[in-house]
Design brief:
33% helix; 234 residues; alpha/beta; 7-stranded mixed beta sheet
Length: 234
């Protein structure tokens, strides 16, 4: 599979200057660079599943994400990622053999990650993992209500955008751009539906010190330094 750079470039350039902030795209063979000019800042972010540091981390089985979305029996084969965003977590899970369906409501964010996925499928080291991912542009609640038959997915994953922190430090460049382009899903409704639909578990990514997503306490928790993954067994 090859990526048609000319055709894709025309699509992305149609967005340049179209939004309320100045957005430019630089297409590459392994992904694309996003330039966001929002005075006084100029933000540059490369989206690629083949970036060396990310690709190396994606292979590590010790990650809390990987542990939370599987079990000791290793029989959680299918994952529905309801809050796709840049789909980095979807790619990590696919690197560990799981088949991932990733939903994103924003058309441009979906197109960016779909372009990088096409690149990853054309690059030998990432091709196998990339082939396990299906990306869908849809609203998560609508998708669950119309497609998500009970038990169709072993694990349903939710990664809502975290609220602004009291610290003056800015979030990562990737998150700054994502926050400008899209909004959070109706996460409470997604969670309630997910509990009814997931075959084995629902996993919710949260800031390390934040309260759970609902009054229902998680059955398992996997922690990292600044984030944690709450697991609700179904």
């Amino acid at each position: 599979m090859t990526v048609d750079l000319d055709r894709e470039s025309e699509y992305f350039q149609n967005y340049s200057g179209f939004l309320c902030h100045d957005l430019k795209f630089e297409l590459l063979s392994d992904g694309l660079i996003i330039h966001l000019h929002q005075p006084p800042d100029n933000i540059r972010y490369k989206h690629s599943y083949n970036e060396r540091q990310f690709f190396k981390r994606a292979q590590q089985s010790s990650q809390a994400l990987v542990k939370a979305c599987n079990n000791k029996q290793r029989n959680i084969k299918t994952v529905l990622d309801l809050t796709g965003g840049w789909r980095m977590d979807s790619f990590i899970l696919a690197c560990h053999g799981q088949t991932v369906t990733s939903i994103e409501q924003n058309a441009l964010v979906h197109k960016i990650s779909a372009y990088s996925l096409g690149c990853a499928r054309a690059i030998k080291p990432s091709a196998k993992a990339a082939s396990r991912i299906e990306m869908i542009h849809n609203d998560s609640v609508d998708y669950l209500q119309s497609h998500g038959e009970s038990g169709a997915y072993d694990c349903i994953y939710l990664d809502p955008m975290f609220p602004d922190h009291k610290s003056s430090a800015k979030p990562a460049k990737s998150l700054q751009i994502l926050q400008k382009l899209t909004l959070n899903q109706d996460i409470e409704t997604c969670f309630e539906l997910a509990l009814r639909k997931a075959g084995k578990r629902v996993v919710v990514k949260r800031p390390a010190k934040s309260s759970p997503i609902s009054e229902l306490g998680p059955d398992l928790v996997y922690r990292e330094k600044t984030i944690r993954f709450d697991v609700y067994l179904t």
